[in-house]
Amino acid sequence: MNDRSSYTLLVSLTVALGGFLMGFDSAVISGVVGPLKVNFDLTDRQVGTAVACLTAGATLAMAIAGRIADAFGRKPVLICTAALFSLSALWSAFAGSYTELVVARVIGGFGVGGALLIAPMYIAEIAPPEKRGRLVSFNQLNIVLGFSAAFFSNYFLEQYFKAPAPTVFYPEATSVDPVAWRWMLGVEAIPAALYLLFLTRVPRSPRWLALRGRFDEARAVLARTSGEESADAALAEVRDNLSSASNDASFGELFASRMSRVMLIGLGLGFFQQITGINAIFYYATTIFELTGSGRDAALMQAIYVGLVNVVFTVIAMRLIDRAGRRPLLLVGTSAMAVALFTNAYAFSAGTYQLTGENLTEAEMSLAIQVFPQDELSTLDPADAAAALDLEGAAAALAPLTASFDSRSAFLAALDEAAAAPTPFAEAIEAAKKDLPKKALQVNGNLILAAILLYIAAFAISLGPVMWAMFSEIFPARMRGVAISAAGFFNSLVSYAVQKLFPSGLAEFGPAGVFLFFGVFAALAFIFSLKVVPETKGKSLEELEAQLIG
Fold this sequence. Notes:
Layout: H1 3-27, H2 33-39, H3 44-72, H4 74-93, H5 98-126, H6 132-160, H7 180-186, H8 189-199, H9 206-211, H10 215-226, H11 228-243, H12 260-275, H13 278-283, H14 285-291, H15 296-320, H16 326-349, E1 352-353, H17 357-371, H18 374-377, H19 382-388, H20 391-398, H21 408-420, H22 426-431, H23 436-440, E2 441-442, H24 445-460, H25 463-474, H26 480-531, H27 541-548
Antiparallel strand pairs: 1-2
Helix pairs in contact: 1-4, 1-5, 1-6, 1-8, 1-10, 3-4, 3-5, 3-26, 4-5, 4-7, 4-8, 5-6, 5-25, 5-26, 6-7, 6-15, 6-25, 10-11, 12-25, 12-26, 14-15, 15-24, 16-24, 16-25, 16-26, 17-20
């Protein structure tokens, strides 16, 4: 590798560290959902908000990040994202209330939105055409490395700050840890600070410099990344491309007829990347694995497998994206995603519902504690409290749910009857309606794990890296900032809706219904890729603009 290639690679890797922070910030919440729910006494709707608020911030940032990057440059925006990541991590770690946590996560979302849009844009504008797909994919690789690092971090911090064993007073004590979850959220401040430092050493985007008429500076950067001989030719191509139009792009121009094809491709890829459920699975990985009967430790470990598979297949995608092309990866990946999601829908639908073992014991204790006078309970030591609780009555109230039910609807019907029975525990059972089906579900955990890993692998070679690569390629230079903002905003909006509604969807339709929904859209993503998406490998950004827009 010559000095020019090494320099371009180093700059691309540095900028792509924003993807690492985005991935870490997004995935770390998967290990924090349980502790947050207990520590702040959250409802399912509030849990959804705590998870999705990061994406809400990213959605707002995407609406303006492209325009800001066009006005002030790619590099200053990336420096701001690094500062926002640092602030969000520290504030989240020290949050004293649910509201504070949400605000801190929204601020982190601003960093996520800026990094998601501007990092691949910058890399595409600095990379030679023959290496652009692979170099832009470094951003996606860093995103999945961030996901994986968050899963590892969550697991080891959970083990290090192990909470006390459950007691009669705290049947869910393993989820009530006042320290571990704060470390999980706060450790991100370290790589964020390093990212801020490293960004001061990268050059400005040569195409942004050319847009601002700073051609000598643009040529100097191109000479370092493409070589002296290629720099003049590349700069001439950029100048020719800019000479026919004003540098001031407006949002309204995105809806002009000449932009219809590229906007359909961009919005379509943005929609399908999120509606197929990737962030629901990443953000709620621990929750999903706990549904299969895995304990919290096992669920956190399975989430690590998800992160590792994601990394391995993203590396494979990087090797293939400039060889096989973008479109073949999309076709193979989306078809495999559909198969995996339909498999999960089947596995969950074939499961049975029965309260047994530790789940039954925990449910009985929870009901008994809820009906016992709390002022009296607080005066007793654990041994006396255990003897005072009406555990036999709670067991009798839950006895109808210890039978095996072939479907979720049958179990819910029995649960309704138990809640309607004239017992002291009826009100407590009614309050537990959303949690008991999750505890009673018994499924083939190995099949579900295998299907999820297949889904992650398929996403990692297709919609994951290809969407961002094509975002950085298909839009014309003059409108790249505003167009990527629009497509990224739409992508993030869909992601927010999926994350926000996922906990309620699980409670309302069960995991089988949710995975079936995702699977249908994965099949539609295959059709979209087959009929609409063009191949872009090996072409300069100016060639693609002539091909797609004219």
